[in-house]
């Protein structure tokens, strides 16, 4: 079973459990770190996420994983919030980030650059437009984007001043 197939399978198994507790499964990764495997769930809700929320989801998901036993090797289960600089992976993540500042890393350079930062203006499943600090509108096809994140707007200063 390929890694991506395993993640999709696990998401289909786990998402209904997370949703039954009134949370959203924002993302899921199953990855090797050193000699150990980790199943990492990122949960979200309109109220935000606390440690108690993570613990509640962890207990319920553990019960389902113990019952269904879908993972052959040993692993550690981690439950976390997506964080302030959350990754944008699904259409709904991008749609919720319209008019917010995001960062984008491309697979291949565009005009000599792989990294761009700006305000997400439009999004479709095919592509997006990003308003750069210069005011320029950058149109990108989604299949060119390796990684996108919502920027931590608390620490973002679009016009830094010299000290």
Summarize the structure.
Required for maturation of 30S ribosomal subunits. The N and C termini lie far apart (55 Å).
List the helices and strands and how they pair.
Blueprint: H1 3-20, E1 24-33, E2 36-44, H2 51-68, E3 76-80, H3 91-95, E4 101-110, E5 113-123, E6 127-132, E7 137-141, E8 145-150
Parallel strand pairs: 2-3
Antiparallel strand pairs: 1-2, 4-5, 4-8, 5-6, 6-7
Helix pairs in contact: 1-2
Protein name: Ribosome maturation factor RimP
Family: Belongs to the RimP family.
Subcellular location: Cytoplasm
Key traits:
elongated, cytoplasm, 2 domains, 5-stranded antiparallel sheet, 3 helices, GMP Synthetase, Chain A, domain 3, disordered C terminus, 3-stranded mixed sheet, alpha+beta, 38% strand, single chain, RimP_N_sf, ribosome biogenesis, SH3 type barrels, RimP_N, 163 residues
């Amino acid at each position: 079973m390929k890694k991506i197939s395993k993640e999709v399978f696990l998401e289909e198994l786990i998402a209904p459990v997370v949703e039954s507790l009134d949370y959203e499964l924002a993302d899921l990764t199953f990855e090797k770190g050193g000699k150990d495997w980790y199943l990492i769930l990122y949960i979200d809700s309109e109220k935000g996420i606390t440690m108690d929320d993570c613990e509640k989801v962890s207990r319920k998901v553990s019960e389902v994983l113990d019952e269904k036993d879908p993972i052959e090797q040993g692993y550690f289960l981690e439950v976390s919030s997506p964080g302030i600089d959350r990754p944008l992976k699904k259409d709904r993540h991008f749609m919720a980030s319209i008019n917010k500042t995001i960062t984008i890393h491309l697979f291949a350079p565009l005009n000599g650059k792989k990294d761009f930062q700006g305000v997400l203006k439009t999004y479709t499943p095919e592509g997006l437009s990003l308003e750069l600090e210069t005011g320029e509108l950058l149109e990108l096809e989604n299949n060119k984007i390796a990684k996108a994140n919502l920027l931590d707007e608390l620490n973002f200063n679009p016009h830094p001043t010299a000290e």
